[in-house]
Design brief:
1 helix; five-stranded mixed β-sheet
């Protein structure tokens, strides 16, 4: 179940993207974080406890919202604009 429910901006164009191999869509102007959390109940798992995480500071100052791109790169979900056809992968296992 999605962590966030969109209350406005329903009229903005859809932006298709892929999340963990599944076709999804956000809205024009969404950050990657917003787009993911309107589709999923978490952004990643904690490196320390394995508990679900959904970002921390929401302004790009911490290291809590990294997600992976299809080419193996990392982006900060809270400060990266969603672009059409992005292929994203959340971190589904804690890193050791």
């Amino acid at each position: 179940m999605a962590l966030l429910k969109r209350l406005s901006r329903h009229e903005l164009p859809l932006v298709p993207f892929t999340l963990n191999g599944e076709a999804c869509s956000g809205r024009a102007g969404d950050t990657v974080l917003t787009a993911i959390l309107t589709q999923s109940d978490r952004l990643r798992l904690s490196d320390f406890s394995g508990d679900p995480r959904a970002g921390f500071c929401q302004m790009g100052a911490c290291q809590d919202c990294w997600v992976l791109t299809s080419d193996g790169g990392r982006v900060r979900a809270c400060s990266t604009a969603l672009k059409p056809e992005m292929s994203l992968r959340t971190i589904t296992e804690p890193r050791s």
